[in-house]
Protein backbone atom coordinates (compact mmCIF):
# COMPACT_ATOMS: atom_id res chain seq x y z
CA UNK A 1 0.00 0.00 0.00
CA UNK A 2 1.37 3.42 -0.93
CA UNK A 3 0.96 6.65 1.04
CA UNK A 4 -0.91 9.78 -0.05
CA UNK A 5 2.33 11.71 0.40
CA UNK A 6 3.83 9.42 -2.26
CA UNK A 7 1.41 10.95 -4.73
CA UNK A 8 2.66 14.44 -3.86
CA UNK A 9 6.23 13.20 -4.29
CA UNK A 10 5.42 11.46 -7.58
CA UNK A 11 4.00 14.66 -9.05
CA UNK A 12 7.13 16.49 -7.90
CA UNK A 13 9.47 13.80 -9.31
CA UNK A 14 8.76 10.08 -9.94
CA UNK A 15 12.29 9.15 -8.92
CA UNK A 16 11.38 9.85 -5.30
CA UNK A 17 9.08 6.82 -5.51
CA UNK A 18 11.90 4.70 -6.93
CA UNK A 19 14.29 5.69 -4.14
CA UNK A 20 11.62 5.17 -1.50
CA UNK A 21 10.29 1.74 -2.52
CA UNK A 22 12.47 0.08 -5.15
CA UNK A 23 15.96 1.05 -4.03
CA UNK A 24 15.50 2.46 -0.53
CA UNK A 25 18.25 4.83 0.49
CA UNK A 26 18.96 6.81 3.62
CA UNK A 27 17.69 10.21 2.68
CA UNK A 28 18.97 13.28 4.40
CA UNK A 29 16.39 15.42 6.13
CA UNK A 30 16.97 18.92 4.84
CA UNK A 31 16.73 22.05 6.97
CA UNK A 32 13.65 23.08 4.99
CA UNK A 33 11.94 19.77 5.77
CA UNK A 34 12.73 19.91 9.49
CA UNK A 35 11.70 23.56 9.76
CA UNK A 36 8.42 22.83 7.99
CA UNK A 37 7.65 19.92 10.33
CA UNK A 38 8.28 22.08 13.39
CA UNK A 39 6.05 24.89 12.09
CA UNK A 40 3.41 22.30 11.24
CA UNK A 41 3.32 21.07 14.88
CA UNK A 42 3.07 24.60 16.25
CA UNK A 43 0.26 25.48 13.85
CA UNK A 44 -1.70 22.36 14.73
CA UNK A 45 -1.70 23.38 18.39
CA UNK A 46 -2.99 26.82 17.44
CA UNK A 47 -5.58 25.38 15.06
CA UNK A 48 -7.17 23.37 17.88
CA UNK A 49 -8.21 26.64 19.55
CA UNK A 50 -9.51 28.49 16.48
CA UNK A 51 -13.00 28.72 15.08
CA UNK A 52 -13.88 27.54 11.59
CA UNK A 53 -14.49 30.98 10.10
CA UNK A 54 -11.35 30.85 7.94
CA UNK A 55 -12.86 27.76 6.25
CA UNK A 56 -16.20 29.47 5.65
CA UNK A 57 -17.93 27.14 8.10
CA UNK A 58 -20.02 28.09 11.09
CA UNK A 59 -19.57 24.95 13.11
CA UNK A 60 -18.06 21.52 12.87
CA UNK A 61 -15.85 18.99 14.55
CA UNK A 62 -12.12 18.69 13.86
CA UNK A 63 -10.09 15.51 13.64
CA UNK A 64 -6.32 15.96 13.45
CA UNK A 65 -3.97 13.46 11.80
CA UNK A 66 -7.02 11.57 10.57
CA UNK A 67 -5.99 8.08 9.37
CA UNK A 68 -7.74 6.84 6.24
CA UNK A 69 -7.10 4.09 3.68
CA UNK A 70 -8.56 2.24 0.73
CA UNK A 71 -7.75 -1.36 -0.11
CA UNK A 72 -9.31 -0.80 -3.55
CA UNK A 73 -6.92 2.05 -4.38
CA UNK A 74 -3.99 0.58 -2.46
CA UNK A 75 -3.65 3.96 -0.76
CA UNK A 76 -3.45 5.19 2.82
CA UNK A 77 -2.54 8.35 4.65
CA UNK A 78 -3.01 10.68 7.57
CA UNK A 79 -4.97 13.78 6.69
CA UNK A 80 -3.70 16.84 8.57
CA UNK A 81 -7.23 17.87 9.45
CA UNK A 82 -10.71 16.55 8.73
CA UNK A 83 -13.60 18.91 9.39
CA UNK A 84 -16.97 17.25 9.87
CA UNK A 85 -19.82 19.72 9.40
CA UNK A 86 -23.53 19.47 8.74
CA UNK A 87 -23.64 23.18 7.84
CA UNK A 88 -21.62 22.99 4.61
CA UNK A 89 -22.22 21.68 1.10
CA UNK A 90 -20.68 18.32 1.97
CA UNK A 91 -20.42 16.36 5.25
CA UNK A 92 -16.60 16.42 5.50
CA UNK A 93 -13.79 18.66 4.29
CA UNK A 94 -10.15 17.59 3.89
CA UNK A 95 -7.53 20.13 5.00
CA UNK A 96 -3.82 19.94 4.28
CA UNK A 97 -1.47 22.30 6.10
CA UNK A 98 1.66 23.43 4.30
CA UNK A 99 4.58 25.61 5.23
CA UNK A 100 5.36 27.38 1.97
CA UNK A 101 5.95 30.87 0.68
CA UNK A 102 5.78 29.80 -2.97
CA UNK A 103 2.04 29.44 -3.39
CA UNK A 104 -0.01 26.30 -3.80
CA UNK A 105 1.66 23.88 -6.19
CA UNK A 106 0.00 21.17 -8.27
CA UNK A 107 1.56 18.35 -6.23
CA UNK A 108 -0.17 19.61 -3.07
CA UNK A 109 -3.52 19.98 -4.87
CA UNK A 110 -3.28 16.40 -6.09
CA UNK A 111 -2.46 15.27 -2.56
CA UNK A 112 -5.69 16.94 -1.44
CA UNK A 113 -7.49 15.25 -4.35
CA UNK A 114 -6.23 11.86 -3.16
CA UNK A 115 -7.66 12.50 0.30
CA UNK A 116 -10.96 13.50 -1.34
CA UNK A 117 -11.08 10.12 -3.11
CA UNK A 118 -10.42 8.29 0.15
CA UNK A 119 -13.14 10.28 1.91
CA UNK A 120 -15.62 9.66 -0.93
CA UNK A 121 -15.08 5.94 -0.57
CA UNK A 122 -15.44 6.05 3.21
CA UNK A 123 -18.48 8.36 3.41
CA UNK A 124 -20.18 7.41 0.14
CA UNK A 125 -20.67 11.03 -0.96
CA UNK A 126 -18.88 13.24 -3.50
CA UNK A 127 -16.18 15.52 -2.12
CA UNK A 128 -15.81 18.61 -4.32
CA UNK A 129 -14.04 20.99 -1.96
CA UNK A 130 -11.14 20.94 0.42
CA UNK A 131 -8.70 23.41 1.89
CA UNK A 132 -5.00 24.04 1.85
CA UNK A 133 -3.95 26.01 4.90
CA UNK A 134 -0.78 28.03 4.32
CA UNK A 135 1.04 28.27 7.65
CA UNK A 136 3.20 31.40 7.17
CA UNK A 137 0.26 33.55 6.04
CA UNK A 138 -2.30 31.80 8.27
CA UNK A 139 -4.77 31.56 5.39
CA UNK A 140 -7.08 28.75 4.32
CA UNK A 141 -7.51 28.46 0.56
CA UNK A 142 -10.62 26.70 -0.71
CA UNK A 143 -9.66 24.25 -3.44
CA UNK A 144 -12.20 22.90 -5.89
CA UNK A 145 -11.60 19.20 -6.39
CA UNK A 146 -12.63 18.40 -9.95
CA UNK A 147 -13.31 15.08 -11.62
CA UNK A 148 -10.25 15.79 -13.78
CA UNK A 149 -8.11 16.02 -10.63
CA UNK A 150 -9.54 12.79 -9.28
CA UNK A 151 -8.92 11.01 -12.60
CA UNK A 152 -5.31 12.22 -12.60
CA UNK A 153 -4.88 10.96 -9.03
CA UNK A 154 -6.16 7.49 -10.00
CA UNK A 155 -3.75 7.38 -12.98
CA UNK A 156 -0.86 8.57 -10.80
CA UNK A 157 -1.61 5.90 -8.18
CA UNK A 158 -1.48 3.29 -10.95
CA UNK A 159 1.82 4.73 -12.24
CA UNK A 160 3.31 4.62 -8.72
CA UNK A 161 2.27 0.99 -8.28
CA UNK A 162 3.82 0.28 -11.70
CA UNK A 163 7.17 1.84 -10.69
CA UNK A 164 7.22 -0.22 -7.51
CA UNK A 165 6.04 -3.54 -8.95
CA UNK A 166 8.18 -3.42 -12.13
CA UNK A 167 11.12 -1.70 -10.43
CA UNK A 168 11.07 0.89 -13.20
CA UNK A 169 13.62 3.74 -12.98
CA UNK A 170 11.67 6.79 -14.24
CA UNK A 171 12.92 9.97 -15.82
CA UNK A 172 12.99 13.02 -13.54
CA UNK A 173 10.06 15.41 -13.87
CA UNK A 174 12.26 18.50 -14.17
CA UNK A 175 15.98 19.02 -13.53
CA UNK A 176 15.24 22.40 -11.94
CA UNK A 177 13.72 20.58 -8.98
CA UNK A 178 16.89 18.61 -8.28
CA UNK A 179 18.60 21.45 -6.40
CA UNK A 180 16.59 21.02 -3.16
CA UNK A 181 15.92 17.29 -3.50
CA UNK A 182 16.98 14.97 -0.68
CA UNK A 183 17.73 12.27 -3.30
CA UNK A 184 19.96 14.48 -5.44
CA UNK A 185 23.19 12.64 -4.68
CA UNK A 186 21.68 9.33 -5.87
CA UNK A 187 20.80 10.50 -9.39
CA UNK A 188 24.22 9.86 -10.92
CA UNK A 189 22.88 10.23 -14.45
CA UNK A 190 22.05 13.86 -13.67
CA UNK A 191 25.08 14.90 -11.60
UniProtKB/TrEMBL annotation:
**Keyword set includes Plastid:** no
The alphabetized UniProt keywords are: Antiviral defense, Exonuclease, Hydrolase, Iron, Iron-sulfur, Manganese, Metal-binding, Nuclease
Tell me which EC number(s) this protein carries. Answer: 3.1.12.1
- The DUF83 domain extends over 4-187
- Gene Ontology biological-process annotations: defense response to virus
**Annotated GO MF terms:** exonuclease activity; iron-sulfur cluster binding; metal ion binding
Question: What does the record say about how the cofactor binds?
Answer: Mg(2+) or Mn(2+) required for ssDNA cleavage activity.
Enzyme type, top EC level:
hydrolase
Origin: domain of life: Bacteria
Q: Which InterPro entries match?
A: Cas4_exonuclease, CRISPR-assoc_prot_Cas4, Dna2/Cas4_DUF83, PDDEXK-like_dom_sf
Under which name does UniProt file this protein? CRISPR-associated exonuclease Cas4
Q: Which organism is this protein's natural source?
A: Tepidibacillus fermentans
Amino acid sequence: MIQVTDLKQYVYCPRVIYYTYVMPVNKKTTFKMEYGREKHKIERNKEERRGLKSYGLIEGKRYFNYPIHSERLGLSGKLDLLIESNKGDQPVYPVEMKYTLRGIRANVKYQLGAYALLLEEKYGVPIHEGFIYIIPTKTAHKITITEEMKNYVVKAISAIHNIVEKEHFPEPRSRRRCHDCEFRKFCNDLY
